[in-house]
């Protein structure tokens, strides 16, 4: 879907590669064209793992048909959270991904990469596209009246979204009240009677948003909406979040039930 959106934005041809699996599970890809005399943009995430293999095979298939330049759009760059060897003996996973993805591609584009330092490891051009303008546009004209980041480090994203909507923004500050009780409250704003929007880059287990949403409700928020760029929604997270949030949305970097916000306009801008 994202590749189709992107082709429309860029007014270029969309090709759906043929992909299937051999009986032993290995991946087979084929681009059913005689020749490619143009530049090619391949859209595929590196998550889950089988998509990475598909991406590498697609890059090679495009080059094999004569593509002049291969650009790779990785909507969700998996493994970006392991950008260090946190413990002795671990793999530097993000760097491994960089090496393989750029083997057959001269330009790399991703969306809201978890650790921007990873981009510095590419030898070719590498860009990180922000989903915030598309998220802001989606909520423009809605009843949202405050945008919140789940922590201070994510404040810039909340600010970008809030600026497009035209609302206030803040971040949630964690205060440990006892060994087990953590309070999460907006740093400066009052959530009472407000329609709050929490913005995060990733929702995985949903634990972060769940804690924030419950706290905002306790503080008297009229409604709590959650939105993220990458909706991984692991282990039934979406069902759990629907119980504590009035609505949950994500962008289409990972396609699923709530991926209603297209980031194609922002990716197209980076590619032009
Ligand atoms: C953390 O650094 C990220 O920005 C997200 O807040 C985190 O990955 C969300 O994970 P979960 O949904 O499991 O709480």
Number of helices, counting only DSSP H or I runs of 4 residues or more: 8
Quickly name the level 1 CATH class of the largest domain.
Answer: Alpha Beta
* pLDDT < 50 runs, ≥5 residues: none
Mean of residue pLDDT values: 94
Largest sheet: 7 strands, mixed
* C-alpha-based Rg, rounded: 20 Å
**Spatial arrangement of strands, main beta sheet:** 9-8-7-10-11-12-13
Q: What's the CATH architecture of the largest domain?
A: 3-Layer(aba) Sandwich
By DSSP, the count of extended strands is 13
Q: How would you portray this structure in words?
A:
The structure is a single chain. With 272 residues, the protein is α/β, with parallel strands linked by helices. The protein has 2 domains: 2-130, Rossmann fold; 132-252, Rossmann fold (3-Layer(aba) Sandwich), CATH 3.40.50. The protein has helices at residues 2-10, 49-64, 93-101, 132-139, 155-165, 207-218, 237-244, 264-271; strands at 18-21, 27-30, 40-43, 70-74, 107-111, 125-129, 146-149, 168-176, 182-186, 195-203, 223-231, 247-251, 259-261. The strands form 3 sheets. A 7-stranded mixed β-sheet has the order 9-8-7-10-11-12-13. It has a 4-stranded parallel β-sheet with strand order 3-4-5-6, with helices on both faces. It has a two-stranded antiparallel sheet with strand order 1-2. Strand 4 (70-74), helix 3 (93-101) and strand 5 (107-111) form a beta-alpha-beta unit. The chain is globular, with a radius of gyration of 20 Å. Bound molecules: ribose-5-phosphate (R5P). Ribose-5-phosphate (R5P) binds at residues 150, 200-208. The site of ribose-5-phosphate (R5P) has 10 residues, from strand 10 and helix 6.
